[in-house]
Amino acid sequence: MLRILVLNPNRSDTITKSIAASLEQQRSLTRHKIHCADLPGAPVGIETDVDVAQVAPMVTHAIHTSEADAVVVACFSDPGVDQTRMTLPNRPVIGIAEAAYYTALQLGRRFGVLSLGPSSVARHAARLHRLDLLPRLVGDRAIGMTVAQGNRPESLPTLLATAALLRDQDGADTVILGCAGMGRHRDALQQALGLPVIDPVQAAVAVAITTLDLHYFPNATMRGHDDTPSHFRFT
């Protein structure tokens, strides 16, 4: 049994619990241990470029001190992912946005994204450009909510109306939830839209599981760190 840390790079226990709930099926199907944790000292929600810049080095430090064999960074801005990969080349570090985009490419020709706000849309476009995937995006529409608001049950009608625009006006044949906290809505949105709806955290955990199962990083297994904070320890 290997260990997957799903790191929520903010300090919202509510969002972390929501993420954990969305992973129950995957947890029941894998032999690996999945541990979800937030990031002490981080903003409550990562919603601006300043937030992303603040947490990126914190994410890198948390991963370096973790005992996990693979880490999923559960923020759709993928903060600290590229930097951490450069400093830990022998351990899989997976960003949920990147994982969601590549999953979408397997399920359809053109994908749309549900975002929190305008600044999120701009960050997503920059990330897609760096990944050379921007031509496959047909629309990125903001719902005008915070991370916490997007996680609440009453946000579903707004998410559904916005996702319908991605489908009917933009021509998306796959919809990506552009925030880790939106995962609770995936099943309802997929049923209503009749299209694949991707929870990026689930997509990234699937990559982590496959990476460990197929030993893509043969030297990745960690034996634990004496300095691993208790918050990130597997029990």
| Cα-based radius of gyration, to the nearest Å | 17 Å
Principal-axis shape: globular
Q: Assign the structural class, choosing from mainly alpha, mainly beta, alpha/beta, alpha+beta, or little secondary structure.
A: alpha/beta
- Identify the CATH architecture of the largest domain: 3-Layer(aba) Sandwich
Note the main attributes of this structure.
Rossmann fold; 4-stranded parallel beta sheet; 10 helices; 44% helix; 15% strand; globular
Task: Describe how the helices and strands are arranged.
Blueprint lengths: L2 E6 L4 H10 L1 H6 L3 E6 L10 H16 L5 E4 L7 H7 L5 E3 H12 L3 E5 L2 H13 L6 E6 L4 H5 L4 H13 L5 E4 L8 H8 L3 E2 L1 H14 L22
Parallel strand pairs: 1-2, 1-3, 3-4, 5-6, 5-7, 7-8
Detailed description of the structure:
This protein has 235 residues and is an alpha/beta fold. The chain has two domains: 124 residues, Rossmann fold (3-Layer(aba) Sandwich), CATH 3.40.50; 104 residues, Rossmann fold (3-Layer(aba) Sandwich). It contains ten helices and eight strands. The strands form two sheets. Strands 2-1-3-4 form a four-stranded parallel β-sheet, with helices on both faces. A four-stranded parallel β-sheet has the order 6-5-7-8, sandwiched between helices. Helix 4 links the parallel strand 3 and strand 4. It is globular and about 45 Å long. The protein starts with a strand and ends in a 22-residue tail after the last helix. The model has no long low-confidence stretch (mean pLDDT 93).
